[in-house]
Amino acid sequence: MDSEPKKDIEVAPALIAVHPYQCSVAVAVGHHLRVFDLLAGSAVSLTDDSAAVPFHTDNIRAIRFGAKGKLFVSAGDDKTVKVWSTESWSCITSVSSEKRVSAVAISDDGTYVCFADKFGLVWVVDLDPPLRDKKPSPLLSHYCSIITSLEFSPDGRFILSADRDFKIRVTCFPEKPLNGAHQIQSFCLGHTEFVSCLAFVQALECPQGLLLSGSGDSTVRLWNVDSGALLDTCEVAIKAGLVESDGKAEEHDHAVTDLCTVLDGLLVAVAIQSLQGIILLSCNVSAKTLSVAKVVLMAGEAFVPTCLGSSPSTGKLWMVTGVSNLPGCNYPALARVRVISGIDVEQEPVVVGDDNIPGGEKLLETLQGNASVDDNTFLAAAEAVKTAMDHLLIKKQYPSANRESRKKCRNDRKLKG
Amino acid sequence: MSETEVNPTISKSTGLPRKRFYRARAHSNPLSDSHFPVSISPSHVDYSLHYPQLFLSSGQADSSKRIQFADVGCGFGGLLISLSTLFPETLMIGMELRDKVTEYVKERISSLRVANPGQYQNVSVVRTNSMKYIPNYFGKGQLSKMFFLFPDPHFKEKNHRRRVISPFLLDEYAYVLEVGGIIYTITDVEELGDWMKSCLENHPMFEALTEKELEADPVVKLLCSATEEGQKVARNGGQTFQAVFRRIVPSNQTS
Ligand SMILES: C[S@@+](CC[C@H](N)C(=O)[O-])C[C@H]1O[C@@H](n2cnc3c(N)ncnc32)[C@H](O)[C@@H]1O
């Protein structure tokens, strides 16, 4: 895609996912998938006797638990989607994709797994009956744009897909998804850079939920998915004091990288590039507004989270920072896990010390690996993740002379000969 | 630009832009990334730029009128010019990927506006990749007609995803078309004609117009005669293959 020599190894951010009832926590770095059982207080050993290839062989790009917590999905650059039973932690289905996978979602009832490939196609797999190897069917497509996030609406009516072209598509999830999802409900348009993440907030007065999206434009936006109407925009980087309100040139430095609703959606945690901590937003569902409630900084440790996770109603936010294949680092799968607890509207959130973390030292050993590395390595890791993300998602405006030379170097032309 | 200025790209005798100054590469790759501004959303489309006489002050639309016809891959704009006078009350726009071709159409429209005061105010053109940005220009159910006239054939199987009519893109067209809205396609490439027709036939939100309906629709007659490409095909005595379908409510939604 680029004329500059492609780096041999691509770095991928560390990912975290928390079981909806906080039974377990999973971390993915590179091709490693690590799971800790919080109930048993021990590491989980995964089993995968898939006919083709067991486990993942390249960077994992997406992990998540199903809403009921029975299923777990992992997928990524090795073009495979693996569905795991969280009871046995064995791989129950392995799906091959034609392209690298960038996002996954599981329908509420656990019947369907959807995944997006790097060419903007979303595929669906029927898990009933649960066969070892399943063929995916095409569901919908964003025309040749990288899909960054997939999400079902809480009522299950819609599947949402966000892309690099600033776009969020809301599609009716049909009764027979294997025939494709043709009915578009709305487009949520307003971001001025790639959309990186989606999350829903729910409330009694609004059971269908309101959509939140984070973007490379350093904002978090609130949407009505039925109409696609933009309800509110929160300039999180400015509000958190990371940039001056006229700091346009630096816009890309503070892309929103992840969103995670905590406390049943009353508060939303936001991870931003270069921020050593998180921002807590509060969403007023009846007034349809977003505002910054608090900025929680990680005192005493350089920690820029690459991914957030939480189980509803616990008031705990799990964070991971790390990267696979950091150049010049001895550890190919670097990860550091931290927890913020006591997240509540009235309370003061606390960054939990390692000795008080749920699961204790064993959890940290399992999810982080045994590597002991200093802060600077983690900062370098966050920086590498940022560069990789910018590289992948930001639209480059090449000067026209440069564009001509790029054309000459294009791979698709070269391959023709 | 002042009108008295000599512009070599405008023909002195006809006052119309000369095509040779707007020659461009025959095909553009719709997959490559954009180097042109893209409207953030349909409400960001500045109607006062496109239809200055109908929308006087910028932004503040004193008219709530929206674009209703889209000519996708409009080329040199022949169809739009014909439609403009046939439907003087309807706002219409051409979408074209090639920069120079778009510039040509812009010039063509402004010359026509100067030469025919009060006319051609309802027609405009935008440079964009329709395959990526249709939803950035039109809202749900906004359009009543969409045109795909003599689109690039992209013969190779692996390039079929570059075709402007495809099962997935039809989802987006169904979204921007109102129920009852009509999609017009025509080509001189039989294989592409079959492809477009079968994509439309297999889509749950489109149904073919009947012979009778086709005959009654004055626009159908323009398909093979109004555009530059159509005229070229006609001159060479080529065959054409058309598919004209109506946007319907999918059967699982009717109650
Ligand atoms: C063969 S020409 C036909 C032009 C015109 N409709 C006619 O009948 O004379 C096809 C046109 O579609 C344009 N085109 C191709 N892909 C496009 C895209 N993705 N978005 C907008 N225009 C596109 C091409 O630049 C070209 O001008």
UniProtKB/TrEMBL annotation, chain A:
The keyword Cytoplasm does not apply. Keywords: Nucleus, Repeat, tRNA processing, WD repeat. Required for the formation of N(7)-methylguanine at position 46 (m7G46) in tRNA. In the complex, it is required to stabilize and induce conformational changes of the catalytic subunit. This is tRNA (guanine-N(7)-)-methyltransferase non-catalytic subunit. It comes from Phaseolus vulgaris (Kidney bean). Gene3D superfamilies: YVTN repeat-like/Quinoprotein amine dehydrogenase. PROSITE patterns: WD_REPEATS_1 (PS00678), WD_REPEATS_2 (PS50082), WD_REPEATS_REGION (PS50294). InterPro entries: Trm82, WD40/YVTN_repeat-like_dom_sf, WD40_repeat_CS, WD40_repeat_dom_sf, WD40_rpt. It holds the Pfam family WD40. It is found in: Nucleus. Belongs to the WD repeat TRM82 family. WD repeats lie at residues 53-94, 188-233.
UniProtKB/TrEMBL annotation, chain B:
The active site is at D152. The keyword Methyltransferase applies. GO terms for cellular component: nucleus; tRNA methyltransferase complex. It is found in: Nucleus. GO terms for molecular function: tRNA (guanine(46)-N7)-methyltransferase activity; tRNA binding. Its EC number is 2.1.1.33. NCBIfam families: tRNA (guanosine(46)-N7)-methyltransferase TrmB. This is tRNA (guanine-N(7)-)-methyltransferase. It comes from Phaseolus coccineus (Scarlet runner bean).
